[in-house]
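Quick check before the chapter quiz. The format below is the same one you will see on the exam, so make sure you can read both the input and the output lines.
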Amino acid sequence: MRIQIAAPKNWQDFEELCLRLWRDMWGDSHAQKNGRGGQNQHGVDVFGKSAYDGQLHGVQCKGKNANYGAQLTDKEIYKEADNADGFDDALSSFIMATTAPRDEQLQAVCRDLNESNVHKFTVSVWSWDDIEDELQYRTDIIKQCGLEYDDSEQESLSIKISRITSKERLQAFITRPVIVAVTSKSMRVLLHHVFYEIMQNAFIHGKATHCMLLYDDFRFTVMDDGDKFNPNVLLPNKGSGGAITITRLFNECKEGLESNYDYREVDDKLLNVYTLTFSQEILGKEISNKVEFMINQDFQIQTRTEASQLAIEQMSTLSPTDDVSVLFGDIVNNSNIKAYVSSAVKIVNPERLNVSLHSSQAGLEEQLKEFTPNVNVR
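Here is the expected output.
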C-alpha cells in the first residue's frame, strides 16, 4: 500500500510543494522560484542545479494561469518546451509537473520529442502519481506544505524507471531520506552514476523497456527485462563509461562491497538481477574526488572524432566536485589530444581538469592552456 496524499488546493501551494520537492531531489538548497508576476519566465517556475550532475534544471508547475488540475495535452508540451528555449542556454532538463494522473501517451510524446533533439534539454512530465511516489518518503515536506495524507501503510523502497525518465527518477530515488541517512553525499553521487550507466546499458544495448531499483538494509538491487547481461563483465574493460564508474566503486569499497548477478524468472518474466551489498561503514564513506585517466595505446584513438567521443564518455562519469587528471601517453598525437581536451571542458569545469603531457608533446602545452590553465609536461 502507498501513502495517499491529497494534491494542493491551488496553484500557489502546488508551486511551493514543487520547490521543496525538487530542492530536496536536486540537493540544491539554493533552488528557487523564477521571477515575479508579470515577468516572462519562459515556462520555468522553479529552477536549480543538481548536486548529482552539476546541471541546471527547470520545472513548470502546470495550471498557473488557468485550468489548475486539468489534464496536460501534447500541444501544451510542444508549446511550453519551445517557450523554455528562451530560459537559459545551460538548461539541461525541463520538467512539466502536474496534479493530473499519469498518462503513458504523454510519456511517449516526451520520448519522441527528446529523440528528435529539437531542444538542448530533455523534456519530461511528472504526474501527481510520480510526485506522490517521491512524497511517500518525504513526509517532512508533506507536513511543511500542510497536505492531507494517510500513512497507515507504506510501500517498499523501490522505483520503476523507463528510459525517458531514467536520470530524473534515479536522482529522486537516491535522495530519499532513508538512503540519505546511511550514505555520504559523495557515495550517493557515485552510486547515481553507477546505476545510471547500468540502466543505460540495459536500455540501449539490452533493449530493456523498464528497470527496477530497490533498496533494503544496505543492499541495492537493479533488475531489467533486457537481454542477459552481467554488469561485472565491465570491470576489466577500461574503455567505457560504465566500466569507469563500476571500477571506481569497487576500488573505493574493496572488501566492503559484494556483488551478485542472476538471470532468473520474476513474476513470470526473465530478468537480469544485479545486487550490490555494502557494509554500513562503506556506505557512509566519503569518496575521494581525485580521478585519473591514462590515455594510451589501449584506447586505439585514430581520429579527432574518436578522441572527442572518448572525452565525452569519460567526463560524463564524473561528479561536479571531482578533480580529474588526464595523462597522455606518447603514442597519442597532438591533434587528438587537442580534440579530447576541447570536448572535456564542455562537460567539466576547466579549473578541475589537469592535463599531463609526455615530453614529446611539449609543443602543445600553450595551445591547451586556451582550454584549461592546468597543463604540465612530465
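If your answer matched, good. Residues 8 and 146 are 9 Å apart (CA to CA).
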